[in-house]
Write a structure and sequence with these properties.
Layout (H helix, E strand, L loop, with lengths): L1 H81 L9 H5 L22 H5 L5 E3 L14 E5 L8 E6 L4 E5 L3 H8 L18
Antiparallel strand pairs: 1-2, 2-3, 3-4
């Protein structure tokens, strides 16, 4: 009888140790699963934050770009008021005649283009905006006439800012169809010569 009791107690102790070991294994597996879930969630949230930050940064750059176009359009309208509604031959005239000598206005934010300090530097290519106003008179323009546009490729997704003859500025994804032919020079328009990427008239 004592022998049987001893064996019974020994078996119970072994069973208890086995159950404890199983619990430890399951607890370890649950801990690893929880850690994996936490890591995956952290990576997912981090990716979402990066996308949000990228989108916010690009939106801020677009706002800055539109601000540059608005400032240049305001300056062009001031010039036209002083010259019987005639727009300048190119953007370099604005620097030469001291209408707008701030070089950063001619360069989109985060662009590799170095801001021009002189009209010659602007005409040599240091400008991120295409000017369509050469030879135009505001009295002959409609409110849909585009005077200024961000050079394609500066902003993400083909975004460009457009400056119109009435002074307003609008954002646009991609170059509008009626401007594409003018950029390629396929056909003339009543607006006359337009600006190439170097900021000079053609």
């Amino acid at each position: 009888m004592p022998v049987l009791l001893t064996q019974y107690r020994t078996a119970r102790r072994r069973a208890a140790r086995s159950r404890a070991a199983d619990r430890d294994v399951r607890r370890g597996m649950m801990t690893r699963r929880k850690k994996s879930i936490v890591v995956i969630c952290s990576l997912f949230i981090g990716a979402l934050l990066l996308v949000s930050l990228w989108n916010a940064r690009e939106r801020a750059r677009r706002v800055n770009d539109a601000g540059n176009v608005h400032a240049l359009m305001y300056t062009l309208l001031m010039y036209a008021e002083d010259h019987e509604k005639a727009l300048p031959e190119d953007l370099g005239v604005l620097i030469e005649d001291n209408y707008c000598s701030t070089g950063r206005v001619y360069v989109s934010v985060a662009s590799p283009t170095v801001p021009p300090q002189t009209a010659e530097e602007l005409r040599s290519g240091r400008c991120d905006y295409i000017y369509f106003g050469r030879g135009l008179n505001l009295d002959e323009c409609s409110d849909q006439t585009v005077i200024l546009m961000t050079r394609p490729g500066i902003r993400k997704a083909g975004y460009v800012s457009l400056g119109f003859a009435d002074g307003r500025v609008e954002g646009h994804i991609g170059v509008p169809e009626h401007l594409q032919s003018r950029l390629s020079g396929d056909r003339p328009s009543h607006d006359g010569s337009f600006e190439q990427e170097d900021g000079r008239g053609r």
